[in-house]
Amino acid sequence: MIHAGIIGATGYTGVELLRILSGHPGVRVDVVTSDSEAGKPVADIFPSLRGVTDLVLTRHDDEAIRDCEVVFFATPNATAMHRAPELLSVGIRIIDLSADFRLKDAATWSHWYGEPHACPELLEQAVYGLPEINRSLIREASLVANPGCYPTSVILGLLPALLHGLIDSTGIIADAKSGVSGAGRKAALATQFSEAGESFSAYAVAGHRHHPEIFQALKSVHEGMEDFTFVPHLVPMVRGIHATLYARVSGDETVQTCYENHYADEPFVDVLPAGSHPDTKSVRGSNTCRIAVHQPENGRRLIVLSVIDNLVKGAAGQAVQNMNIMHGLAETTGLTRIALSP
Amino acid sequence: MIHAGIIGATGYTGVELLRILSGHPGVRVDVVTSDSEAGKPVADIFPSLRGVTDLVLTRHDDEAIRDCEVVFFATPNATAMHRAPELLSVGIRIIDLSADFRLKDAATWSHWYGEPHACPELLEQAVYGLPEINRSLIREASLVANPGCYPTSVILGLLPALLHGLIDSTGIIADAKSGVSGAGRKAALATQFSEAGESFSAYAVAGHRHHPEIFQALKSVHEGMEDFTFVPHLVPMVRGIHATLYARVSGDETVQTCYENHYADEPFVDVLPAGSHPDTKSVRGSNTCRIAVHQPENGRRLIVLSVIDNLVKGAAGQAVQNMNIMHGLAETTGLTRIALSP
Amino acid sequence: MIHAGIIGATGYTGVELLRILSGHPGVRVDVVTSDSEAGKPVADIFPSLRGVTDLVLTRHDDEAIRDCEVVFFATPNATAMHRAPELLSVGIRIIDLSADFRLKDAATWSHWYGEPHACPELLEQAVYGLPEINRSLIREASLVANPGCYPTSVILGLLPALLHGLIDSTGIIADAKSGVSGAGRKAALATQFSEAGESFSAYAVAGHRHHPEIFQALKSVHEGMEDFTFVPHLVPMVRGIHATLYARVSGDETVQTCYENHYADEPFVDVLPAGSHPDTKSVRGSNTCRIAVHQPENGRRLIVLSVIDNLVKGAAGQAVQNMNIMHGLAETTGLTRIALSP
Amino acid sequence: MIHAGIIGATGYTGVELLRILSGHPGVRVDVVTSDSEAGKPVADIFPSLRGVTDLVLTRHDDEAIRDCEVVFFATPNATAMHRAPELLSVGIRIIDLSADFRLKDAATWSHWYGEPHACPELLEQAVYGLPEINRSLIREASLVANPGCYPTSVILGLLPALLHGLIDSTGIIADAKSGVSGAGRKAALATQFSEAGESFSAYAVAGHRHHPEIFQALKSVHEGMEDFTFVPHLVPMVRGIHATLYARVSGDETVQTCYENHYADEPFVDVLPAGSHPDTKSVRGSNTCRIAVHQPENGRRLIVLSVIDNLVKGAAGQAVQNMNIMHGLAETTGLTRIALSP
User: CB C180 to CB D196 under 8 A?
Assistant: First the structure.
């Protein structure tokens, strides 16, 4: 039984970790922390957890953290980086769901996150936790940077085509749409029901933090990657990401077959039959990414549709998948829940 | 042309007043204030008003307020009461969309709103601005307390039955459901899209501020009124209130006919044919209250369904209706917009 | 391993049964039928089941049904009653999720469902499958009538108060609100997104089929039950039922304590602390019913709030709970999924 | 006073025409038809019209149609083309909100709409009713083909850039998102609340009928137009279209300025300040198209965001705008309603 801790357990990724881990046969969550809610049973904050866990929130500096084998950071950005060195030094493995260790370049991180990085020396050793790219590195990693939600959907959607040289690596466009839970559990005007409900808009078109993250990952797959466009949008739904990806086919290989073959053994990537349109509902609550590829009129235009649940494969589910890999468990352990549909 | 001002123009009732008044042929809004956003064009905050108005927000103490003939308070509770005496003293008529002047008893107000009332001496002269009850008083009023959204739907739904003695005045129940915009335009966790979306719950069952307001109004109509129950619920939609009202029929008069006759000349109350189920969509954006009455199996149980748009007949529309009455205009002036459906 | 069949597997209760049973360690679904979609893999219709099941839909008269130990009917009303006698005669146990066997009186059934009952002789032996009332009868039953969604939420909400004589048994009101999936998976105008979205209304106020079902169950608990009012409403969300129940307290016992004690050992009923307001999100996807009781100002008015997921505790989850009881399994087997929140 | 008729008045564009025309000072609707609902008052079908109109639906062959000066077809596709010749022959002007006369090439029409065109000889004379392109032709037209909803948003978003040669005319992508009301008022499974709610997906990626319509219009503006990609998506909201348009800047002119200048005199196109993100809510219920242009990091990638209300500027509002132009009225007559926000 793996002893785990969750630092920052009162956000949506925190409660989602608890939901998933409560059904995981190989893990016991010993500590859940929240500076703002310390002292309260976590089930008081999330009634969905009543009867499931008796855990009481403690402060982030709870000493019990040091008895964990693995610690999940479900904290806002710029928190984990202040704590990671100490935990790593005592042999605790870290899975950080925030963005602190996702970028390899400290200056780039600084540019996008607005402050100096607290431990740039760890950036190199941190492993980007997308199992479909880095499975073997994850297995040995002490520090896993769990990918962002948009990046997961976009990278998985483009990976086979880029890796196998099926598309031009320049001019790729990712038009991505996310449910509102991606903004986290905090009071903000723009994500009020009356603001975000019955409306649709793009945001951060001038530049979004997930752009450099996606770019870095895709460039690691295909060095020629450049001139990449990413536009996020807010959808009036709670969960789900839909990425619509546009590229130009350069070879003659059948894209559909390439995708099916590439992902044939991946437990959490499902390539749909030709002509399909995945909807986010089909993955809600599950760790699955569903992908469909289209070439209208058999032309050079490739359109890839990629859907995930932003809180599962886009956050907590992928974190558990990484934990399974790190600890030598079957990768699907605790992650076999079927999507809630309708 | 009536010169009007709006104090607190950056909430939902404020922008709704601007939407309605911009199409009103007899009013010119000269001043709109907001302490937090002073200096900004109001259309910068509400893009829906782009091209409609050039008004720039000023501070609440803008002297130009004193040149208005009528001032709308679209402020949070406990604001208008600090400013009203001064404006009334220079002959300005006030329509207060907040709760400051709705209750006649200062101690009751204090109990529910958590602070002493700043000008209890004005409570008696303030007229409760529900035209269907107080039309003639409103005509002469200097200070109109615009009713709350729940009270408007509940009182209009019960008025004919109580007034004409058709029902027992004890044990009446109002089970009311509101869209989220009723909570106002402010960042709060409970009304985040991810919290309020795809969910339904009651709130404030132990006691809600609109209970004493409804009770006072109904008691003024029927002295025997007592033991009244009011339970509000939050609906995952932006606009609309649906009140389901339960009473016990005591007489033999036909309720349907009584309602139709009572409201025959009311421009903004529409009694539906027997057997109908009004939906909030049919009144969205309009100043109409639609009502249906049911007596299942012709029994003694009366069920009244009453719907309004909480921001129009439940707030800004009713305020303009009151303004029309106060200034001798046709009551429907500027209020003939049809509901937006679907 | 129990061999199970599902007749009518292409509605929402059908896919929900498959979702739940796929994670159930003691059951194997051998047959799923659909007359309209026979020949198709069920995962073609419900992409959420891709990778989970290879089952192919067959026609309702598939002989393989006769090799099942238990058969779930997830068919429209008036279907199961035509098939039940034959299956029962060969020793198959039936759990009917439709309304065919819920009412004891054939004439009443006929009145509400618009045709003669096909096998009235089975009505007496059919057991109403609400474990919290009929657990021991269910254990021995051959034919279980799985309760309706509204009835489950309303009966569980009133049961302790009625059983222990805490409330007047006359004049009780159930104001119930349901998500749209309660209407089933079929094309209809009233439940189109553009009709039901951003709107709220009551329906069937003159009389709803769940009224006699609730009334019969409550009367079996308390003979004096009469003059019961039930009003359903449609909420713009997919899943969830919220029942707001109004009664009058007649005794002096503390209602909160009574409810807590009564449900102390029930695995799927959670009585919240005094002052709580359960939301439907806290039970979405789970088999739990959460209940809160209120007596505003410690008066005689009792308000009970009861929430369930209409497709789980209100349909497929409860059916599996019944199956567990019938087959001597732990009652919670396969039903421990936590609600999906947010 | 213009005498108008509406053929097919029971769809969403029909009721929207009635909503808009009821507030139009220069038009009287004399006839509204519906073969399926003939004999019913239109307000019985759309309660939002109660108290607004007494019109009773008649059959499509109602002779009174021939006394109208202008007839709107709000019928399904392939209806207007069977009736248009007769009406035109007696001097009635036609505004067709369906797709029957939008494409110039009968074979192309046939390919996309699945049957031969009934009056190909009229295709040439029909004027594509986008005032921002064809204002002067519309003025003289007898037969106006009112544009589709997606085409309106996409064409207005690309028009200035194409016309003024700011972008490459090849490889343009339109990633468009629509509320569900775009699917019309009919019972269908895919647009049920429980299917479309809380979910997001693309559809018709292989080819959508609006592709040739957009392509034809843009090619008329810039002959070099080719290799155009259009992908529609379904958003869980009732009204609104958001088009995200991707092109490559070829010149050095400032795009922002070009757009502002191009649309400076257009009453219904609003170019937002640089850096803006229009949301569909800001145009809901209004005839406005709001546009923002972005060039991230001042690069060659142009991203245009364009929003409309699909039922207003994308259908009924634009039809009334066309009528105003055809009849010499001020173009904004009856179209000054402000968006309903929130």
Answer: no
The answer to whether residues C128 and C134 touch, using CB atoms and an 8 Å cutoff, is yes
Preceding amide of A342 cis, omega within 30 = yes
- How open is the CA angle A53-A54-A59, to the nearest 5 degrees? 110
Q: Do B229 and C275 touch (CB under 8 A)?
A: no
Would an 8 Å CB–CB cutoff place A195 in contact with chain D?
Answer: yes
Are D7 and D113 contained in the same domain?
yes
* Res B64 pLDDT > 90: yes
Residue of A nearest to D204 (CA): A277
Identify the chains in contact with C, defined as 3+ C-beta pairs within 8 A: A, B, D
Closest CA to C341 of C284, C279, C292, C286: C284
Q: Is residue C333 part of a domain?
A: no
Q: Give how far B37 is from chain A: nearest CA, Å.
A: 15
The Cα–Cα gap between C74 and C79 comes to 9
Catalytic annotation, residues of B: 149
With CA atoms as reference, the chain D residue closest to A201 would be D279
Query: Does B229 sit within 8 Å of C296, measured CB to CB?
Result: yes
φ/ψ (deg, to 5) at D134: -120, 30
The answer to whether D305 touches D243, Cβ cutoff 8 Å, is: yes
Q: Does A186 touch chain B (CB under 8 A)?
A: yes
CA distance B17 to B312: 9
Q: Reply yes or no on whether the pLDDT at C251 is more than 80.
A: no
Q: Which residues of B touch C305 (CB under 8 A)?
A: 201-202, 205
Question: What is the phi/psi pair of residue A94, to 5°?
Answer: -120, 135
Give yes or no: residues D36 and D54 share one domain: yes
Structural domain includes residue D341: no
Nearest to B200 by CA among C278, C57, A172, C155: C278
Given the DSSP bridges, would you call strands C201-202 and C229-234 parallel, antiparallel or unpaired? Answer: antiparallel
- What is this model's ipTM? 0.97
Q: What token pair was written down for B276?
A: 């109908």
Q: Are B318 and B254 within one domain?
A: no
What local confidence, expressed as pLDDT, does residue A240 receive? 98
Determine contact, residues B278/B291, Cβ cutoff 8 Å: yes
C44 with C181, same domain: the answer is no
Nearest to A238 among B179, B189, B197 (CB): B197
pTM of this prediction exceeds 0.80: yes
Contact C237 B305 (CB under 8 A): no
**Percentage of chain A lying above the pLDDT 70 cut:** 100
Residues D95 and D107 placed together within one structural domain of the fold: yes
Residue A23 sits in a domain of what CATH number?
3.40.50.720
Domain hosting residue B89, numbered range = 2-147+313-326
pLDDT of residue A252: 79
Q: Percentage of chain D with pLDDT > 70?
A: 100
As beta bridge partners, residue B29 has B4
| Number of domain units in chain A | 2
Tokens of B272: 């539906």
* pLDDT average, residue stretch D223-229: 95
Q: Does D339 touch chain A (CB under 8 A)?
A: no
pLDDT tens string D34-68: 999 999 999 999 999 999 999 999 999 999 999 99
Asked if A190 has any chain D CB less than 8 Å from its own CB, the reply is: no
- Burial (0-12, 13-18, 19+ Cβ within 10 Å), D35: middle
Instruction: Check CB contact of D199 with chain B, cutoff 8 Å.
Output: no
Neighbouring chains of D at 3+ CB pairs under 8 Å are: A, B, C
Q: Give me the total of CB pairs closer than 8 Å, taking one residue from chain A and one from chain D.
A: 141
| Residue C173 forms contact with A (CB below 8 Å) | no
Q: Band the pLDDT of B251: cuts 50, 70, 90.
A: confident
- The answer to whether the CB of C39 falls within 8 A of the CB of C65 is no
Look at residue C253 in the predicted model and tell me its pLDDT.
81
Q: CB contact, 8 Å: B274 with chain C? A: no
Q: Which of D36, D178, D193 to mutate to test the interface with C (most CBs of C within 10 A)?
A: D193
